[in-house]
């Protein structure tokens, strides 16, 4: 057991740069969502209105839509209709990207004195179109990541402001169960991931393990094409004395689906949106936060990062893993612990209805 633990730690150390890079994108995506949340924290921006924030039927609807989307994309991929997949996904990504970019264009135009509804909207639209065209023509890993981070931040805000934490937690638990089944049992999530990698779409984040890595050259069979088992080794030189050290073959980059960031992130945003406005105010250009909300948000984020570290102990071995069980579990635990401290257990879980 100790030898196996040492082997896992050794493999994590070999990949620490890509793992830290992925963690940085995880934090950045959620951090941007926190920054722009006050601008959208109004009844008109909630997906199902103010009354829909406590109705669990809408959460089940969201989960159903995820399942239908997944099955639909896989069916189109098997039929060779890649152009249709790309069109559908690019449209959805463009809408989310516009949602995330608009607050920044508002802030910049306000500072220089040109902020109007028309100028903000047109500027955000132009940047969005430019970003999507760049993604279409040159989907290198840094372009995919840039768009993916902004898209992810937009999505976590859209969902986080629309549901109270109780419903978000239910959503996260159900999604984690589905993710585990889809990766380990049906394995269709691996097929979906390979489809998105093959089409170079930013529904995932990419952390290269080596300099010179090109996502443009990445084949779309990375997830289903499992690496060799631990007893199949390849030797490499480790020093000038030609000593040999066994090393497990690994992929050229670390991949994480945007959903693995979105689900913990939307609990962070929901906590800021619906927990009591207690404590000192914290300034934000779009609207102030309150200390209790920020404490729980940061606690939830830290919990998600703890889950991320545990997840990396499996990923380091080169095997695809469902991210949501550990990431969501860590975020929920972080929410509960920090929430008990900041607002008390009575405020953590809100009353909900089915319809």
Concise summary:
This protein has 355 residues and is mainly α. The chain has helices at 2-14, 16-40, 56-78, 82-112, 117-137, 141-160, 165-185, 188-199, 259-274, 291-315, 324-342, and strands at residues 204-208, 234-237, 244-247, 253-257, 281-282, 289-290.
Would you mind describing this structure in some detail?
The protein has helices at 2-14, 16-40, 56-78, 82-112, 117-137, 141-160, 165-185, 188-199, 259-274, 291-315, 324-342, and strands at 204-208, 234-237, 244-247, 253-257, 281-282, 289-290. By secondary structure, it is mainly α. The protein has one domain (2-225, 244-347). Strand 2 (234-237) and strand 3 form a beta hairpin.
Which properties best describe this structure?
355 residues, 64% helix, two-stranded antiparallel sheet, 11 helices
């Amino acid at each position: 057991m100790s030898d196996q633990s040492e082997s896992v730690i050794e493999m994590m150390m070999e990949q620490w740069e890509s793992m830290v890079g992925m963690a940085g994108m995880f934090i950045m995506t959620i951090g941007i969502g926190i920054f722009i949340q006050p601008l959208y924290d109004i009844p008109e921006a909630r997906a199902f209105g103010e009354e829909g924030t406590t109705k669990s039927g809408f959460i089940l609807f969201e989960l159903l839509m995820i399942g239908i989307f997944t099955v639909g994309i896989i069916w189109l991929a098997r039929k060779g209709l890649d152009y249709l997949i790309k069109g559908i996904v690019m449209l959805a990504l463009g809408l989310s990207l516009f949602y995330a970019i608009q607050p920044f264009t508002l802030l910049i135009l306000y500072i220089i004195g040109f902020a109007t509804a028309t100028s903000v909207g047109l500027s955000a639209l132009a940047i969005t179109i430019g970003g999507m065209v760049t993604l279409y023509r040159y989907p290198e890993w840094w372009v995919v990541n840039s768009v993916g981070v902004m898209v992810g931040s937009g999505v976590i805000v859209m969902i986080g402001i629309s549901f109270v934490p109780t419903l978000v937690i239910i959503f996260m638990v159900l999604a984690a169960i589905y993710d585990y089944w889809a990766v380990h049992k049906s394995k269709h999530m691996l097929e979906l991931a390979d489809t998105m990698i093959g089409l170079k779409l930013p529904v995932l984040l990419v952390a290269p393990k080596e300099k010179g890595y090109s996502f443009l050259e990445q084949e779309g069979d990375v997830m289903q094409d499992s690496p060799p088992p631990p007893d199949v080794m390849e030797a490499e030189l480790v020093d000038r004395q030609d000593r040999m050290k066994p090393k497990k073959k690994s992929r050229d980059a670390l991949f994480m689906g945007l959903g693995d960031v979105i689900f913990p992130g939307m609990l962070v945003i929901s906590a800021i949106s619906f927990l009591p406005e207690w404590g000192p105010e914290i300034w934000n250009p779009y609207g102030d936060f309150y200390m209790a909300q920020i404490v729980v948000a940061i606690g939830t984020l830290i919990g998600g990062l703890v889950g991320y570290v545990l997840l990396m102990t499996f990923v380091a071995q080169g095997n695809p893993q469902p991210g949501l069980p550990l990431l969501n579990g860590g975020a929920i635990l972080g929410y509960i612990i920090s929430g008990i401290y900041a607002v008390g257990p009575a405020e953590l879980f809100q009353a909900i209805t089915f319809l």
